[in-house]
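For the sake of transparency, this paper describes our internal protein records without simplification. The tokens are whole numbers drawn from a learned vocabulary of local backbone shapes. One such record is reproduced below, unchanged from the form in which we store it.

. . .
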Amino acid sequence: MQGQWQQRRIEQGSRWVRLGSVSRVPVAAGHGLLLFLAMAAPAQASAALELIPDPPTLIGLILFFIGLVVVTNALIFKPIFQALDERSSRVEGARQRAEEVDRESDALLQRYERSIHEARTEAETKRKNMLGHAREEQMGMAEVARGQAESQVEVAREQLAAALATAREGLKATSREIAQAVATRVIGRDL
């Protein structure tokens, strides 16, 4: 605890008073406040209570008040109101820009979705066309293959029929010879 007081005393020597660990206030401002409070006289009840002060003092106070209002207005209120107006205009500008960017992004998103939909539709149409062409080509190839197969089957039938006719002729000749040979053996003599 005593260390804190010593630290404050050291800091007062460097013209700054540490209030907690966050803020610093000039010592001169603190001394000025104490001087102002010391100059104020204690309020005492008086037998002759004046509600309206003498005119020179009243005029001086009014002029002082008007001067204080003008100075306060010029030094404090106008800059504060100007900063607030600038801030509100920046906020409004930022809000308008955000709305504009939002509209642009929505338009871009819609355009993107529309182009994707068109691309999908086009791809689906191309796929169906290619599938139709492939089916037609497959049907054509199947017809050609079927025609070739039928012609080959027909050729094979004709060859088979010719081979069968040749075999029958050969069998007839061979069967006569076999029949004669069997009859010759069975009878025992030549026919």
Observations:
- Residues 168 and 174 are 9 Å apart (CA to CA).
- The first strand starts at residue 16 and ends at 19.
